[in-house]
Please model this.
Amino acid sequence: MTFADLDTFDDTFDDTLELPVKGKTYVIPSPPADVGVRTERLMTLGRKRARLQFKQQRLAELEAAGTTPQDDERLGPRDELTPAELDEADRLADDDPTEDSLHRRLLGDAYDQLLADGASYATLRHVGITATIWVGSGREAAEAYWRSGGRAPEPSPESLSAPVPAPASKAKAKRQART
Model:
């Protein structure tokens, strides 16, 4: 059996993100593969770092309360960042000042359109972070962040250990919108 060409799935395969800002919809295309892979890796390392910080905070709280870690199931499985992963996270997060920023590379032409339309930094940042989450964690996570107005939820063991969802298709998004 031969796979059908991906281009034949125009109605179901969605590789763009549409974000409305002050009555105008900005279309953000899927980034080049190298930018997408880098973004996914940044998100993975960021989740691991957040998990580690959460566990360290929770262990300190338990110690202050005189409780041992075995008494608290909220700590979840051990998932430490290795020194090599910490170095990689720092390297990936540091944009070379001579290169375009990660937001510019993720937003494509929408970046220049936002600037031309007089968008504030807060708006550009919100659009950029939403696109980052879309690429690194999927459409549903990006929409939740978008709707939050930029307020990320407090991390929990469940949110930090959740697998990265696959990007939603247009058909799936339409079905979900009808329910």
